[in-house]
Design brief:
Largest sheet: 5 strands, mixed, barrel
Strand content: 35-45%
Shape: elongated
Radius of gyration: 22 Å
Distance between the termini: 57 Å
Number of strands: 14
Length: 258
């Protein structure tokens, strides 16, 4: 059956709750549905993006033609839904009105598993785990990322530190840390396949809490023939023993394990 023609936005009415906005199909979201939300700014993501906490939930909203907002301000935001070219769903507010102040809750303790399962989307949380990898984003070099591991699952933690040659998280590799950050369903639009992640706004939000991690105290890597990528991604760290056959870029090599 063919999709019905797109009608004027007024036909559908104005969305007034985060719950109703999230219930929209991707097709409806792309029709620039009107919304009007009232709530408290809980997190300032950027100069024109905030997480607004309403009675019906939280969502990230980009706004235009208004001064920068501060956490704790109570505002009314009106605008439209939109879908970016990468398929991500966004809220754009063309009108903003400050109406008072509210209470911003402190960060809450959360299990890494629950963050990955989306139970804390758009909330500032505190999670613990072992830093198992550190890398600069190859798409946007301003971002430095690390993997936070716990119970064979990994959460991507991202921090915009600038395009510097300094590897800002290398000193934490293999160590247990406590991280305070914003849980997001996807860190950036072009990272849509990463799934949920944690956005860290300050380097000081990552705190060392444990000792060194023994990288070799892990199971041996074996039996990878005919294994699907989805299964490989859940293996966690493994160890191998072999002879180095070739080296390039100073840190990449081919290992003969026969």
């Amino acid at each position: 059956e063919s999709e019905r023609p797109v009608a004027a936005r007024e036909e559908w009415g104005t969305l007034a709750s985060v719950k109703d906005i999230r219930a929209l199909s991707d097709a409806d979201f792309a029709r620039e549905r009107s919304f009007c939300l009232t709530g408290v700014v809980e997190t300032v993501v950027a100069s024109n993006r905030v997480v607004l906490a309403c009675d019906t939930g939280r969502d990230e909203i980009a706004f235009f033609r208004f001064r920068p907002l501060a956490a704790g301000e109570r505002v009314v935001m009106a605008g439209t839904t939109c879908v970016y070219g990468d398929g991500s769903r966004r809220l754009h507010a063309g009108a903003v009105k400050a109406i008072g102040h509210g209470v911003v809750p402190p960060p809450c303790e959360a299990d890494l598993k629950d963050v990955l399962d989306g139970l804390y989307d758009n909330r500032v949380v505190i999670v613990r785990g072992v830093v198992t990898d550190v890398f600069q984003d190859e798409v946007d070099p301003r971002y430095w990322n690390f993997l936070l591991g716990s119970d064979r699952r990994s959460l991507v933690v991202s921090h915009m530190a600038g395009a510097s040659s300094v590897r800002v998280f290398d000193d934490l590799l293999g160590k247990e840390v406590k991280v305070t950050g914003l849980a997001q369903r996807q860190l950036t639009g072009w990272r849509r396949f990463w799934g949920p992640g944690l956005r860290v706004f300050r380097r000081t939000d990552v705190v060392l809490v444990g000792g060194d991690y023994d990288f070799f105290a892990v199971p041996k890597l074996e039996g990878l023939h005919h294994v699907q990528p989805s299964a490989v991604s859940t293996l966690g760290r493994r160890r191998v023993t072999g002879r180095v056959m070739a080296v390039w870029d100073g840190r990449r090599f081919i290992l003969d394990t026969q």
